[in-house]
Write a structure and sequence with these properties.
0% strand, 103 residues, mainly alpha, binds iron/sulfur cluster, globular, 6 helices
Length: 103
């Protein structure tokens, strides 16, 4: 979700992900030739910190907006969930839809 679309969701509200470093939400830039790769323990710490911000945020609409994207387009902490959690939720919803279509 872009900062512009966040403003459409909550034009008067201040949201933590707009006021903090983008790296907190998405991690460091992708490694290039021999570049830095975020260690797993640092990633867990960073995601926990971002999730704490989401817990205090009043704009939870970002989650459903993010879930409209396909699983392979999920990046970073958004709407109170990590990208892995959102991918799992999207796949579970797709499986449930497929099961309903069959029955
Ligand atoms: S819930 Fe999290 S990602 Fe969504 S607007 Fe709030 S701080 Fe940003």
């Amino acid at each position: 979700m872009t900062r512009m679309s966040l403003r459409r969701l909550a034009p008067q509200r201040r949201v933590p992900c707009e006021e903090t470093s983008i790296e907190l939400w998405y991690g460091p830039p992708e490694p290039d030739d021999g570049g830095y790769v975020e260690p797993p323990d640092q990633r867990r710490w960073r995601e926990r910190r971002a999730l704490q911000y989401c817990e205090s945020c009043s704009v939870r609409a970002t989650l459903e907006a993010e879930l409209r994207r396909p699983a392979h387009h999920q990046w970073g902490v958004r709407g109170g969930m990590t990208e892995r959690e959102r991918r799992a939720l999207i796949r579970a919803r797709l499986r449930a839809q497929a099961d309903q279509a069959v029955s």
